[in-house]
Amino acid sequence: MFSPVKTRKVYEEIVGQIKQLIIDGKLQPGDKLLSERELAEKLNVSRASVREAFSALEMMGIITIRPGEGSFVRQVSYEGMLEPLSFLLQVEISDITQVLEVRKILEVEMAALAAKRATPETLDEIRRSLDYMSEELEAGGIGDRADDAFHSALAQAADNPILVKVMSTITDLMTNSFRVSRQKLFLIDHMSDYIYDSHLRIYEAIAARDPKLARLRMRDHLLLVERNMLVLQQGSIPRLNKTPGRRALHTRASKNPS
Fold first, then answer.
1. Domain 79-234 annotated CATH 1.20.120.530
2. What is the per-residue DSSP string for 26-94?
3. pLDDT 10s digits, 73-89
4. Domain 11-73, CATH
5. DSSP conformation class of 9
6. Which residues lie across from 72 on neighbouring strands?
7. In degrees rounded to 5, what are phi and psi of residue 29?
8. Nearest to 126 by CA among 99, 101, 105, 156
9. Are 51 and 34 in contact (CB under 8 A)?
10. Whole-prediction pTM value?
11. Domain boundaries, the chain
């Protein structure tokens, strides 16, 4: 039940303190750290421990050591942080339901954040993605590219750069690794109208600045996708009740003006 208590090594304590200073914003990208001698005196530790800590931080990609100049806090890019994750997902993930579970965790709250933070410009971008989807469907397409644009616009509206990058990684995974499954979903009779309508409902909740409703509608949308994906995985064809949806009603009215 219990494991032996291990004393933390000195260099690990130094690493922890420097990482915390960066997290707290007291050390910024580009800042020069104290020299080995200065830091050893300040922390009352040996220079060897400081040197070991600096080596560990460099291996983590947190600092860069320039001979003759000193040690500096690195500029960490979101892209660099996510590249290993993207590669891992492309290679390791073979079950689309795992991706859908992650999407439910991320995108339900993302919709709520968008309802709180969306600007007029990001709201316009979401609206344009809906128009794009309608145009794609009218032209005989399945709306998958517009679907990507919609969820990307929502991530932008949530105003969190890390979330934007994570969602981009997930979109790439859905597009590259699950293209066939995704296209089968969009080709189900009436599915495109259902998806358009659920996207429109999400947009309306965000435009109304209603985080609770945005969460609910995003959850409903992702559950719709998940349920039908599972039916497809079992080798069956999902059956949807025929409904014109608001996109089809709008199209019908525009084609047959009274």
1. yes
2. SS-TTPBPPPHHHHHHHHT--HHHHHHHHHHHHHTTSEEEETTTEEEE----HHHHHHHHHHHHHHH--
3. 987 655 555 554 554 45
4. 1.10.10.10
5. P
6. 32, 64
7. -55, 130
8. 156
9. no
10. 0.61
11. 11-73, 79-234
